[in-house]
Amino acid sequence: MVFSFLTLLHLMVLLAVSLRIFSRRTAHGTALAWLLLIVLLPAVGVLIYLLIGERRLGRTWMKRAIALEPQVRAWASRIPATAVVDPGTLNTGAESVSRLATGSVGLPLLRGHRLQLLADSASSMRALIADIDAARSSVHLEFYIWSAGGFVDDLVAALVRAAKRGVPCCALMDSLGSRPFFKSESVRELRDAGVNLVEILPVNPLRALFVRLDLRDHRKIAVIDRRIAYTGSMNIADPRFFKQDAGVGEWVDAMVRIEGPAAWVLEAVSLSITALQTGVDFAPPPAPDLAAAGDSAVQIFPSGPQSAMRHVEQLLLAAIYAARREIVLTTPYFVPSETLLTALRSAAIRGVRVILIVPEKIDSRLVRYASNSYVEDLLAVGITILHFEAGLLHTKSMVVDEEITVFGTVNLDLRSFELNFEVSLITYDRAFSAAAREMQRRYQGSSRALLLDEWRARPNWRRLLENAVQVLSPLL
């Protein structure tokens, strides 16, 4: 009798959750992964699904997001024409990428930029601190991780100095990514100096009942005086001290320093998530009148879980299909969707040289197993896969034909495509693309190539484990 009751309860729960999954249009791989987990581990699977199975931002956030989208698009439509470039001036492939970017998020192609690639955390932080020390009107920061120690203490001191001389300073910090930092002495120093701290997507057990806790603000944005900005892969963390017990070496990051109208556009992107979190009106200041800092054309491309569309995946696909000669990608986490995998394989088959650079060691064993399950399919069509051996390569970059570069916070995994708030810089500048490609070549020099015959010779148990984890990869 007890067995029959438990069996009936199991079947009812399985049916209820299955109907819930099928009531939403989900990628078939994701739906099957959830069903498999629930069948194999009924109680645990159901609990995990209730916690992280759906992109629940919460009723308040979603109401704000629905109201905010037309406001952001209306603001974008009023960007001064003097700052906007007609995509028709680009070559055919770049034009298609630019038009898709504008159609997806409403932000146009912008002119008049000077770009500087900063290929390591130390130089990035030195430049950022110098700009904060020179700030006159505003400092606005938004980063996923803040971690005290090393040069982060120098950044905190620079923010305190700026606030004390009357410069309005605001710092957005993801609640989960920066959790230890909120308990540090640095937070007290910043608040005492008058820096406005905003905790994004607060984490607590009660919210877990209503909001998916692993939806995170993964962006890295700094804007100074609305004319200088930074974005890229670097968190506010000194790699000499950050996660040194993880056994992966120092994190290797890169940032881009931007002068030009993209700076105040990035500030507006950050103000949009401030509006989502706090409920304040989305009202960026008027566009400043800036002289052209250079001749680079760029686009800002924000993405996030408030949209049902995988906008950033569509952007990457457009860039891959636009390639004629070469695609080089760097990412710490490579767990692609089937469409992205197909695009990369198709590029290689049509004769495009495709190079994928990933770290030898990463801080997630499950992600490594899932990533390895794709290696043979990629090597078999001639894609070069390099394992970076000089630390955890955290730079997220894609250079296409040394003409188009996508650079920012997006990893090549479903978490970045669906769950995180992200931001990308798209450049249509040969000089910047050449600099980014040179940085990638330095990564290649510290990497070893995977060979197809050697890969196929790995133990069968390893292959089985990797494929088994890959089935559940939509849940990672």
Low-confidence stretches: none
Distance between the termini: 38 Å
Average predicted local confidence, pLDDT: 90
**Number of E-type strands:** 19
Q: Any idea what the radius of gyration is? A: 23 Å
- Helix content bin: 40-55%
Strand content: 15-25%
**Which shape, going by the Cα principal axes?**
globular
Walk me through the structure.
This protein has 476 residues and is an alpha/beta fold. The strands form three sheets. A 15-stranded mixed β-sheet has the order 4-3-2-5-6-8-1-9-18-16-15-10-12-13-19, with helices on both faces. Strands 7-14 form a two-stranded parallel sheet. Strands 11-17 form a two-stranded parallel sheet. Helix 10 runs parallel beside helix 11. Helix content is 44%, strand content 19%. Strand 2, helix 7 and strand 3 form a beta-alpha-beta unit.
Break the fold down into its secondary structure elements and pairings.
Layout lengths: L1 H21 L5 H13 L1 H11 L6 H19 L14 H14 L4 E9 L2 H13 L5 E5 L7 H14 L4 E6 L10 H9 L2 E5 L19 E5 L3 E5 L18 E2 L2 E5 L2 H17 L17 E8 L7 H12 L3 E5 L3 E2 L2 H12 L3 E7 L5 H8 L2 H6 L3 E5 L3 E2 L2 E5 L3 E5 L3 E2 H6 L2 E6 L2 H16 L1 E3 L2 H5 L3 H12 L5
Parallel strand pairs: 2-3, 3-4, 7-14, 10-12, 11-17, 12-13
Antiparallel strand pairs: 1-8, 1-9, 2-5, 5-6, 6-8, 9-18, 10-15, 13-19, 15-16, 16-18
Helix pairs in contact: 1-2, 1-3, 2-3, 4-9, 5-10, 6-7, 7-8, 10-11, 12-17
